[in-house]
Amino acid sequence: MKVAHLFALASLGIPAAVGAQPTRTSPARLPAATELAPDLGPLIDRRESELRLVVTRYREDRAALLRRYDVPFGAERRSRLGEFYQAWRRRVDQIDFDRLSPDGRIDQILLARRVDYELGLLEREATRIREIESLAPFLGALTALPESRRRLEAPDPQAVARNLALVSRQIDSVRLVLDRPLAGDDSVARRQRRIVAARTAATVESLRSTALARWYGYYSGYDPTFTWWARDPFKRTDEALVRYVKVLREKVVGIREGEDEPIIGDPVGADGFVDDLALEFIPYGPEELIRIADAEYAWCLAEIRKAAAQLGFGDDWRAAMEQVKNRYVEPGKQPDLIRDLAFEAVDYVERRGWVTIPPLAREVWRMEMMSPERQKVSPFFLGGEVILVSYPTDAMEHDDKLMSMRGNNPHFSRATVQHELIPGHHLQGFMTSRYSSHRDLFSTPFWGEGLAFYWEFRLWDDGFPRGPEDRIGMLFWRMHRAARIIFSLRVHLGTMTPEEAVTYLVENVGHERANAEGEVRRSFDGSYPPIYQAAYMLGALQFRALHRELVGGGRMSERAFHDAVYQAGRMPIELLRAHLRQDRLPKTYRPSWRFYGEPPAGRP
Fold first, then answer.
1. What does the alpha-carbon distance between residue 230 and residue 162 come to, in Å, rounded to a whole number?
2. 421-436: per-residue pLDDT in tens?
3. Which DSSP letter does residue 252 get?
4. Which residue intervals of 327-380 are DSSP H helices?
5. Domain boundaries, the chain
6. pTM to 2 decimals?
7. How do residues 218-251 score in pLDDT, each as one tens digit?
8. Closest C-alpha among 547, 543, 551, 549 to residue 571
9. Distance between CA 24 and CA 341 in Å, rounded?
10. How far is it, in rounded angstroms, from Cα 82 to Cα 190?
11. d(Cα 221, Cα 205) in Å, to the nearest integer?
């Protein structure tokens, strides 16, 4: 066995595994058959919110409408959803709030806020569509085709062919304008044009490859007359869209063939953040949250300098982090490391009695390898019921291999296994699918990511790091989460560019550049809500404050607190606080919990 692997395991106090033999930290046995069926008494006696079925009905009716009106950015979809939300808002207001239990009141407040937020999102979408149509004036004509099919209207093949021919010529006319050189420097206006162009290219390509392709495939070959008339015009329209998207991406966005795409982002702006924070019941403004992140980062910086001094680097924490990064395991051995760390995580939490871990949750988690393509946007391993291991393959370029191995070293990975598996995301998913599952409608990263990261706070306070290397590993993630608040809010507020965010992560957190680019790319590729990346640390700070109030204040034990959190379901933490305290909230309740006190007055 290679020295690097032996060192990595020895530094964690874990003996090297031989073949398929279980390690010292692996579970001694599978749960007994009697443990596979839980005690049913607590489930039978459990009291649920009176609005559980109301919330479930709203969630399922909304999902059904979204399946029916499935043309992205279609006017018909926006109109029908708007009518649905307005009708539901009136119904929710008719609930006799004063007769509800504390939990019923929480659900009513959450449902009303959710419906209001969805209405606001439709307005936000309408604004963005107007911006897209400035570059793609043909969008409405194209979305009308699959919308007509969803209404089960029989097409007029000759009219369809004529309209497609007109649209294809319009697309080419717009493309020729875009193909001309753009004047001006990289000003704010030019950057905004790139943002809208990237959004337009993504929207048009999605429409072409999904809704339009399904629309044409529905008739082609099944309706001979349709196919006779529409085949060639549709082919020309499809080819025109391909040429249009290519020019838009290359000439306006600046994407070059054979190179990684630039990170453009799509800032939501200050007004969007106000709406998102209101949905999450966060009583702080964006600038206040950035000051909180600055304060947390300053604490991390002081601690990591202490650890660097212990390793003989003085206050040069970057040099100390380089040493920690270079203690990666050899190729092919990362799954063994993650397995052993996962067993250690379960054992650590159970021995302290922090939370109840159902035997089945301990048994059913699994591990898979992450594809090289996904590693470009997820440079670190991901978790839940399935752990996805991010580590280089033999086909990756040498520098990328080293950056991946260094970024996933044992000291960086040790606490994050707890974040991803147990007591983090896997246990969260296991419990919330079995308790208060109707509240999945109110799912929030402040609960999901915040709770997982909160456990890293608890581990630190409990003395989990065994030496300065482990402390540096844990502090890397803590600095990373503080930096996420800063760069994600700054980019969405328009005061930082994605390129500046990458540099910020490299210089202030110690990221490998490729990992920093993957992190920023993931933050702004549209797969996460704008406030998502800030929710890790902010949610953890909320849970830490709630733990101090209820456990530190002697009102609940560790196990009772954590079990109650998992069983209450996913919701904004301020409403979870009301649930745990059984507060009878007023119907007009607004966020007011200053979980961090008053943030510092200025940036250090």
1. 9
2. 999 999 999 999 999 9
3. I
4. 334-352, 359-364, 372-375
5. 52-132, 134-253, 276-581
6. 0.88
7. 999 999 999 999 999 999 999 999 999 999 999 8
8. 543
9. 11
10. 33
11. 24
